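sry for the spam today, last one i promise. struct tokens for design, 332 residues
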């Protein structure tokens, strides 16, 4: 805990040096580097970006470097689906049939729970389990409703977000991470486990070849732009924004990440991403005085255990929480 307060002192000392609109001064970079020095032993390569809602100052480290998003990219998919809802091309109440052929493996999700035919979910519930449980079947079904990866990327470009690309469904991403012979359906994965039992113990290992592939990457600053566009109403209607942030507030994955070191009861609306040596968390944190800030933390290329990666994200989130809250109080 002592290390974190040392970081806070550095952040507060540099409070007046951050430049607006997604840039950083040299001094601002040094503050970000101080945070990175504490977190990197826990998680390898790190990038983060944060901005108070309604504010101008951006705190970032490696903000313009690209990172594997993993499941964090599901926020972009949800945004594209909700854009179609706003255009009345879809409705949240619309029911979608999910067949066994559409199932993609996850932790314990739709593919593992519903082994018999007859599953239907509304668009609203697809988004719900895609975000709160990070379910991959719901994700790839939602991707289809959005019009596919190209349509999700097109929606990002509509918002003026360039350093952010969506290229594959999750079944294809898992295929490429683990070297599967096809998309990560239950049948393909079961066969892979039979032929390569080592997969059961190496799933958390980093995959540098996968990380070097530029597909499904974003910079922290680009992802921050998406979060700000969602919150401001630029990305979707006020009704859709309320729906999505409400869903994100119920996320059940990653309790030790953005939330890990925050004061108990701090409201957090977020989405995690995990695969191989990747552990990410993105979202919104509410301060005790009601102000909020958007935050993106990416960690790639990690060789440490997942709890250490979670701790790195938690340290960054708490440091920025203290900067935005304690720093503001110090100015008053």
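last one done:
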């Amino acid at each position: 805990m002592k290390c974190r307060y040392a970081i806070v002192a550095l952040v507060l000392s540099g409070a007046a040096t951050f430049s607006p609109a997604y840039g950083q001064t040299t001094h601002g970079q040094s503050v970000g580097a101080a945070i990175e020095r504490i977190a990197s032993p826990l998680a390898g390569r790190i990038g983060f970006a944060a901005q108070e809602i309604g504010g101008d100052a951006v705190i970032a480290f490696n903000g313009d470097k690209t990172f594997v998003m993993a499941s964090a990219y599901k926020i972009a998919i949800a945004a594209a689906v909700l854009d179609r809802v706003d255009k009345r091309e879809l409705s949240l109440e619309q029911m979608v049939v999910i067949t066994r052929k559409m199932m993609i493996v996850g932790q314990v999700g739709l593919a593992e729970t519903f082994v018999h035919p007859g599953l239907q979910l509304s668009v609203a519930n697809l988004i719900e389990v895609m975000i709160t449980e990070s379910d991959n079947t719901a994700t790839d079904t939602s991707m289809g409703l959005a019009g596919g990866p190209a349509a999700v990327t097109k929606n990002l470009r509509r918002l003026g977000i360039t350093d952010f690309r969506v290229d594959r469904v999750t079944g294809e991403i898992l295929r490429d991470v683990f070297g599967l012979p096809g998309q990560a359906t239950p049948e393909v994965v079961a066969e892979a486990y039979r032929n390569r039992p080592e997969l059961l113990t190496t799933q958390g290992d980093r995959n540098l070849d996968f990380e070097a592939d530029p597909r499904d990457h974003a910079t922290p600053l680009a992802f921050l732009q998406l979060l700000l566009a969602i919150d401001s109403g630029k990305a979707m209607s006020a009704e859709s924004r309320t729906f999505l942030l409400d869903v994100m507030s119920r996320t059940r994955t990653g309790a030790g990440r953005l939330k890990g070191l925050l004061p108990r009861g701090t409201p957090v609306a977020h989405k995690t991403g995990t695969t191989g040596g990747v552990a990410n968390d993105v979202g919104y944190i509410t301060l005790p005085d009601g102000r909020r800030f958007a935050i993106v933390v990416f960690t790639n290329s990690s060789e440490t255990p997942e709890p250490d990666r979670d701790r790195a994200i938690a340290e960054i989130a708490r440091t920025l929480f203290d900067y935005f809250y304690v720093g503001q109080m110090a100015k008053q």
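Residues 306-331 form the longest helix (26 residues). ok im logging off now
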